[in-house]
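Researcher: Next entry: UDP-N-acetylenolpyruvoylglucosamine reductase (Vibrio palustris).
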Amino acid sequence: MNIYENVDLSLISNWKVGGKAKYLIDIENIEDYSKSLSFIKEKNIKALVIGKTSNLLFDSVDLNIALLRLGQSFFSIKKQDSNLIVGASTPCYSLARKAQQLGLSGLEHIVGIPATIGGLIYMNGGSKRKTISENIVSVTSIDNDGNIIERNREQCEFSYRKSIFQKIPDELILSVELKLSLDDSKKIRKENLQILRDRRKKFPRKQPSCGSVFISNPVNYKTVGPPGKIIEDLGLKGLKKNKAQISDIHANFIVNIGGANSNDILFLVKEINDKARLISGIELESEGLFVNKNGYLTPLHLVNIDE
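Model: Predicted structure:
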């Protein structure tokens, strides 16, 4: 277990935004996790598990929290018939490519997602109108008392961009079993490459962001379209607040154009929803979560920036 103090979050977060976290703890095994909980209790501060931080906006002030990050020992992929047992810190792109090499189909949609599989399970993320829960057999986690818990897919209470793990943040996801289908490796590779090409064309990949800011609500999608189209139709594409910008490439991305802070980004999220309510009568729900100075999580669209 390695403990780092006063870690500059703007250097490790996907958005390149954030103050300094009191502690960052790298965990390599379950024993490390138990030790980290004792350390956190001793320091009397809140803990937050992070992966690639792709859905997190950290407050730009200093944060009195301990961030827990799973190390390389949780990066694992094991084949069991046509299923895969995957460690929680495994990056999505590594998993998708390994599945392709093994001739296992079903994970092509995650090949370009900049997240770990643990984070993807937490958010029930995915792309191409798919979610990771479609392939989940079971998820294994550990609670603060050291109890190992295995839940099947139904017990994980998955819905669109939701899971039971958002209700029980004190549990740490350890691994997942995924059910896939046998297919031709070359065919899977071709689809992976096409998805990556499409993402390069559509998304502002060279600028720091959290990926899609707002959830593509199925009801809104049918009536007024996906969030990017809604925001563009509102005339907000390209809008700036200091060094944050609603991307002029894809309007469902808010990018850091160099030195943005958390309030700049939250201002743009609020501006989008204020105008969406006024003109279209809808509210866009965010995928991204705001981490305040005490480590509490709030969906971006619900944050009061006057606090």
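Model: Note for the record: The chain has a mean pLDDT of 94.
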